[in-house]
Amino acid sequence: MDATTISAVRDRLKTLLETVSGLRALDTMEDSVNPPVAVVVPAANFEEQVTMDDCFDLSLNILVLVSRTGTVLRLAQDNLDGYAWTVRAAVDTGATADWDFCMAGIPTDYGDYTFGAGEGAQVYLGFTLPVTVG
Predict the structure, then answer these.
(1) N or C: which end of the chain has fewer CB within 10 A?
(2) Are residues 37 and 26 in contact, defined by beta-carbon separation less than 8 angstroms?
(3) Is 111 exposed, middle or buried (0-12, 13-18, 19+ CB in 10 A)?
(4) What is the mean pLDDT of residues 69-94?
């Protein structure tokens, strides 16, 4: 698998994520985020072992973030709870022209994500959705 193929997989996931109402989708991480947003990022074990048919399975994560400020924390959590299922449903697909399967896992790491440092730091409530593409 080469970088072009990996980029195409990220782009296809972004396209699927764009079907989720009210959610921006990115296929790469930006310097700053404008939530609510879903970002396709590599997982720690990015490239899996070669399968029996000599293909690679890719492990990716979808990072979903919503804004978190002191007075709207409950609303942010309600929004994030809704995205946990709609994002999963959007990417959990069968075979397409881009892959044989795309299987979404269970949302993990539900909590705060900080971007930036010092007074300019922004904290967002979010979760990570593991996805395997083969």
Answers:
(1) N
(2) yes
(3) exposed
(4) 83
